[in-house]
Amino acid sequence: MTIADRSLTWLRGSLARWEVFLLFVLAGTFLCGAQTSRYFLTFSNISIALAGMAPAAIVALPMTLIIVTGEIDISVGSIVGLCSAFMAVCLEHGLPVEVAMSFGVVIGTLAGLVNGLIVVYGALPSLVVTIGTLALYRGIAQIILNERGFSGFPQWYQDIGFGTIGATPIPWSSLIFVLLFVGFALFLHATHWGRALYAIGNNLTAARFSGINVKRALLGVFVASGVLSSLAAIILTAYLASARADTAIGLELPVITAVVLGGVNIFGGAGTMPGVLIALLVLAFVQNALGLAGVTPEQQQIVTGSVLILTLIVFGSADLLKKTRVALWRPRGATRSTRDR
């Protein structure tokens, strides 16, 4: 094969990647957004879009690991709300903001640990378990806080949510996300622990027989989800300048949509962190453009849900086609091997 042929093969393979397609979608989003409003491409608006994306983006990082293993966590929004509620209680009792933040991280970690213990040692489907804890954690938050809320945070804390770094339009929350993203990307794509998660998602039984500690890995990703959800609670509470029990209702929808849109197989075993990052940017700027166009948040949820369904249909059709090809090939291969023997 000549160098030209190799280059052409590499180019075709690169253009066929889902991440490249998402980059074109992101470029199209910017073009359409610029036509929607003259404010879309301003630094201030981009900063607002990035700051608004940060809590969901942070939660999407551990959600990627969970879905790669073939599991799912529907309770992330309720964990964020629970952490925010406990932070409000701490502040109501006169505790410093730093103590309230630490307490929120502890609560999020425990919530993720409970999810992981039930899924791993109870041998129950993560979808069913986290639907139950979604209601449980939100109910606890509403009981301890009722309809009350807390505001009046110091300025330094509010800057975590929507403040920018010096004179730049880059929010502090986006910097936090970038640092976490680099760490999670290296973990998933450059360590044997990350490869173990792919192995679990591809074939749980084979992963177990290959020596992978499946229970520890699954427990770890659920605990990570709880920890990162508590961090998202800190940032979202600062962004809203208010701690309430109903914080982050419905957060799981954009999080799961971004992960699946980013190319992570909902059944596990495939997907990349860069793909999730691009999908997060697409969703953030699509919602921002819709907001500038006067589309209500309820209508934006319809768009997000539709994107999730269409993505599932696309990847579901691809999986079905792949399985069909394998099924058509196997009988012939089996016949040949039997005849050879």
What key phrases describe this protein's structure?
341 residues, mainly alpha, ABC transporter involved in vitamin B12 uptake, BtuC, two-stranded antiparallel sheet, 2 strands, 1% strand, disordered C terminus
Give the CATH topology. ABC transporter involved in vitamin B12 uptake, BtuC
Q: Termini distance?
A: 36 Å
Count of spatially separate domains: 1
Number of strands: 2
- For the residues shown, what is the average pLDDT? 86
Please state the structural category.
mainly alpha
How many helical stretches?
A: 14
- Report the CATH C-level class: Mainly Alpha
Biggest sheet layout: 2 strands, antiparallel
Strand order in the sheet with the most strands:
1-2
- Which architecture does the CATH hierarchy give at level 2? Orthogonal Bundle
Q: What is the radius of gyration?
A: 22 Å
Strand content: under 5%
Q: Topology as H/E string?
A: HHHHHHEHHHHHEHHH
Percentage of residues in helical conformation? over 70%
Report low-confidence residues grouped into runs of 5 or more.
Answer: 332-341
- The outline comes out as globular
Could you give a short description of this structure?
The protein is mainly α.
What does this structure look like?
This protein has one domain: ABC transporter involved in vitamin B12 uptake, BtuC. It is globular. The chain is about 80% helix and about 0% strand. Strands 1-2 form a two-stranded antiparallel sheet. Residues about 330-340 have low confidence and may be disordered. α4 (about 75-90) runs parallel beside α6. By secondary structure, the protein is an all-alpha fold. The two termini are about 35 Å apart. The chain has 14 helices and two strands; from the N terminus they run ααααααβαααααβααα.
